[in-house]
Amino acid sequence: MARILVIEDEARTAREIVDALTAEGYAVTLRADGPTGLAEARAGLYDAITLDRLLPGLDGLALLAELRREGVTTPVLVVSALDGVDDKVRGLRAGGDDYLTKPFALAELVARVMALARRRADKPAGTLLQVGPLVMDLVGRQATRGARELDLTPREFQLLEYFVRNAEQTLTRSMLFQAVWEYGFAPGTNVIDVHVGRLRRKVDADNEEAMIRTVRGGGWRLHAPD
Amino acid sequence: MPRINRFRLADVPRTTAFRMTVLFGALTVTVVLLALGVVYWRAGVFLTQRLDETLVREVAEFQRASVPEQATHIDSLVDSDRRGHWRAALLAPDGRRLAGDLANVPEELRALDGGIHALPQGPAPTPERHHAARGLARRLADGRVLVLTVRTNEVHEVRELILRAMAAGLVGGVILALAGGLALSVGTLRRIEAIHRASATIMAGDLSQRLPVRGSGDDFDKLAAIVNAMLAKIEGLIGDMKVAGDNIAHDLRTPLTRLRTRLEGALRRGGDIEAHRAAMEDAIGDADQILATFRALLRIAEVEDGRRRAAFATIDPGPLVLAAADLYEPLATAKGLAFTTDIRPAAPITGDADLLFEALGNLLDNAIKFTPSGGALTLALRQEAGLAPEITVRDTGPGITPDQRDMMFRRFTRGDHARHTPGNGLGLSLVAAVAQLHGFRLAVEDGQPGCVMRITLGEGQLGQG
């Protein structure tokens, strides 16, 4: 069972985060301030940490810097009510960590924590990716489902690759947008939905079992047919 | 807020005008004193020289006279001088007085060297009479002694005159400086008091108040004009903020009311768990809309702050426009719009790629939202020779009337046709803010039909075309 450390001082938010992650089957530990959070992160073996930006006793980013200085590489999702610090956010994402602005949808937080925890668990390398009948050849830029070759635009190929690399995980609109388009903002409308819809029509033919599934609460999941 | 002091005389010495006047007064007095001092000194020297010359001339006249005439000459010199300026003596070799009114040779002239000496106490000082004089004494060839003195009171009188003039000038100068300083300071203090009063009204919240301007174009007027211009700008901004605040209140109150009613209704109706779940999902949708509005507001504030200029980099506009086309084309197609692009090579620009992409996204999003199904949408990037690159978004929607153009970049302004279209009305405000941050020109034009949004990626001011 994957272990998650939640460092959050606001009791109600903390409880909701813990509940949501527990419901996903994680073992969750909660710490409510900077110093004890740092001690726990340092001592425990966690797969991912959610870290509030403003904590009593120690600033979240300072805590993260201290962890990294000590060689602790656990991926961290920084949660913050502060916006407008894009450079820092970019730095965090480049360092393998993630950043989420309050207020957030719990589904978004859970999806991002899962992605971080999973990224640590296994990082598929190589040029051939496979999920069930879906095979992607990253060198030949070809994707097939079973015997059927998928006719994808370069952008759709990128989108599918991200789905395949994060198979069985919920991916939210903003995760997809940031991963595939790489621009730093949240597109407000259903523009991503249309892209996923197109990809889905190509991946899931009428007579096939749906692989790209809509997740209640905002997002999609690539699922290998049973 | 500083306490407003009424005009008080005790404040006068502290005013700059007063201090300046006193300083200049002191300088003027010093200069006058110096000049008069020089006159005083030179006049003394000059008059003394004149007396000395007279002494020398008298000696010469004495010597030109024959010996018997010499005694008469001396006597007549002394006698004719009723004011007693001249005192003289002609003494025999044995000291006997042959002529004149001096009994013996004054102390200072005992050397009998024929040179002119000052006699500070006069030739024959008594406690009552001791007028300063100059004189000479010499032994003549035949052994007689000639003593000649002349009073120097003329020199002293002239000097005294000059001293009086100096004193009068000093007193007059000081009085004038003080009076001038007072007059100027009172004027200054009055103006400051007026400004202070106006400021107090402004600080109390009346932003329409302006600092008083006399119209004389003096320093105070210039300063007041500057502050007034600043106040006008602030008043405008506060006004904008108030309008924005009212709009925020309106735009948030509507969904918040909807949220509340929905929750209340669900609670009242009861029903099964599915009904509750549906109500909660709707409530989350409402909350998301409220949060999106907040996010958009904060985003605009962030962009308007201008700090993001620090992160500007060189961007090739081609790939950026292409990426935006790529992102929005499916949305347009899904709505039944013909989406065409005309993207040509353009010179690199300096800016924030994220913000420009977001702004372009907002323009496309708007165009897609407001163009009815079956319409067309064109995204173009062009650069004419010698001009800045231009991005245009052309649609066949309802267009924007000229009076709407002015309003549309303000926060929360939405065209009438937009009342029933989802959105928070902040999209174009963000586009305007991004353009302003970059110094790009944003123009809205009549597309006949529809609307053309044009961003000129170069020097320019925000305008409505």
Describe it for me?
The complex is a heterodimer of chains A (226) and B (465). Chain A is built from eight helices and twelve strands. In chain A, strands 2-1-3-4-5 form a five-stranded parallel β-sheet, sandwiched between helices. A four-stranded antiparallel β-sheet of chain A has the order 6-7-8-9, with helices on one face. The model of chain A has no long low-confidence stretch (mean pLDDT 84). Helix content of chain A is 40%, strand content 21%. Chain A is an alpha/beta fold and 226 residues long. In chain A, helix 1 (11-23) crosses helix 5 (106-121) and helix 2 runs parallel beside helix 3 (60-69). The radius of gyration of chain A is 18 Å and the shape is elongated. By secondary structure, chain B is an alpha+beta fold. In chain B, 54% of the residues lie in helices and 14% in strands. Chain B is built from nine helices and twelve strands. Chain B has helices at residues 16-64, 67-80, 153-203, 219-269, 273-305, 317-334, 353-370, 402-408, 427-438, and strands at residues 86-91, 97-100, 117-119, 133-139, 145-151, 313-315, 338-343, 349-351, 376-382, 390-395, 441-446, 451-456. In chain B, the strands form three sheets. Chain B has a five-stranded antiparallel β-sheet with strand order 2-1-5-4-3. In chain B, strands 7-9-10-12-11 form a five-stranded mixed β-sheet, with helices on one face. The longest helix of chain B has 51 residues, at 153-203. Chain B is rod-shaped, with a radius of gyration of 50 Å. Mean pLDDT of chain B is 82; it is low at 412-421 and 460-465. The chains are: A alpha/beta (226), B alpha+beta (465). Chain A binds chain B through residues 83-84, 86-87, 101, 103, 105, 155, 181, 183-191, 194-195, 197-198, and chain B through 284, 288, 291-292, 295-296, 298-299, 302, 305, 308, 311, 323, 326-328, 330-331, 334, 353-355, 357-358, 361, 365, 369, 427.
